[in-house]
Amino acid sequence: MVQQTREQWGTRAGFLMAAIGSAVGLGNIWRFPYIAYDNGGGAFLVPYLVALLTAGIPLLILEYSIGHRYRSSAPLAYRRISRPAEAIGWWQVAICFVIAVYYGAIIAWSASYIWFSVTEAWGDDPNGFFFGEYLQMSETPGGVTGYVPAVALPLIAVWVVVLAILALGIRKGVERANRIFIPLLVVLFLIMVVQALTLEGATTGLDALFTPDWSAMLDGGVWVAAYGQIFFSLSIGFGIMVTYASYLKRKADLTGSAMVAGFANSSFELLAGIGVFAALGFMATAAGSAVDEVATSGIGLAFIAFPQIISTLPFGGSVFGVLFFASLVIAGLSSLISIVEVVVSAVQDRVGLGRLQAVLMVGGVIALVSVLVFPTHEGLYYLDVFDHFINQYGIVLAALVTLIVFGWVLRRLPLFQEHSNAVSSIRLGAWWKITLGVVTPILLGFMMWDSLRAELA
Ligand code: PFF
Ligand code: NA
């Protein structure tokens, strides 16, 4: 374990941009709108806000506090708290490794779709085009039967960009990239949302999204969904925020930054809900069907429904498509950079490698696995399996174990509270320890139980 002088963020805004860049990702654009729609619409905002305030922001503060205090990547920081806790850090590193491998693939598809939006390559069959012509997905999983260069090339480009930014370091690479990415993302996305709002049927979509179903608030599953969205969306439980905060200067407003990052991420999420459902409302209206029949999320939303919408638009379809897919690419890249950084800095801290070496070796392995696995005819099957496993167990388990170990076994919450209070603008009171020590662990346990039950049903 070699201690080198640690890099630092150039400015407070630079750190914030990077933290927001990590949080704002595909989850905001293609996950939140449908989760909200499916879990009570307008009424979902209540559990969602409760989750943000009782778990999201408190956990962000905890991760910032750990990173800032120990100035090291997740495994080393935890080791400094208590030797065996290092294992939790490596579990998080493993999660980041896996996510990075497939997140890159989705960004590469989105990049291709920027171009396809102009050519409308999918014709009148976006579904057949995506799975058949473009991904050339095999009918059944199992075995590796071939490689698709049209998918591999943009994926290689994504990795070159990500590794180049990481190789430039925290200040010259990560910070500078995010200072360009985030404002650009906001501008492109805002234009897309405004365009969506002008479409016929937009209000139908917004009604479908926001009409509250208050009975949802009595449904435990809705609360689980709200906490799940907050965790995934704020990139909590992966060691990302520990890593990013390890590059903060001594003087840093931890609580203030957590509030800004948390609310910025949720604002973007709401904005995405508005844009996506305005567009879905248009799609439903054009097809003479109900929003219910077209509402969807994830791959189906981005690569099937949006292409449909783009082709159906009376004018400006290509512009709309370029704005949407460019937003996905930028939001995705800034998140991908943060998860690869977790792995890079963990290995750097452990082995004492220089930045360039670490990026080439660690990032190189991630990129290689990504490029070898995902452009095959079976790539999407692996992606589904990885994604399911990570979402259902990986993140929740890591967060739960972290809280039990640091909160109950080692009883370190008072120490982190004190540390945060020594530097932050907003002082943490007893409520912080209660949310992290009691409320959040119970909810996380409930989430684990809930997904296990669904698995066995
Ligand atoms: N927080 C990102 C989003 O909401 O899309 C997703 C994400 C980024 C998840 C980084 C996990 C991760 F490690
Ligand atoms: Na997010």
TrEMBL record:
Identify the domain of life: Bacteria
**Chief place where the protein resides:** membrane
Q: Where in the cell is it found?
A: Membrane
Q: Which PANTHER family match?
A: TRANSPORTER
CDD domains, from UniProt?
Answer: SLC6sbd_u1
Q: Known NCBIfam families for this protein?
A: Na_transp (NF037979)
Q: Topology versus the membrane, per the UniProt entry?
A: Multi-pass membrane protein
Which named protein is this? Transporter
Please provide an example of a Pfam family that matches this protein in its UniProt record: SNF
Q: Which family does it belong to?
A: Belongs to the sodium:neurotransmitter symporter (SNF) (TC 2.A.22) family.
Is Magnesium among the key words of this record? Answer: no
Transmembrane segments annotated in the record for this chain: 12-32, 44-66, 87-116, 147-168, 180-202, 222-247, 268-291, 319-344, 356-377, 389-410, 430-449
UniProtKB keywords:
Membrane, Symport, Transmembrane, Transmembrane helix, Transport
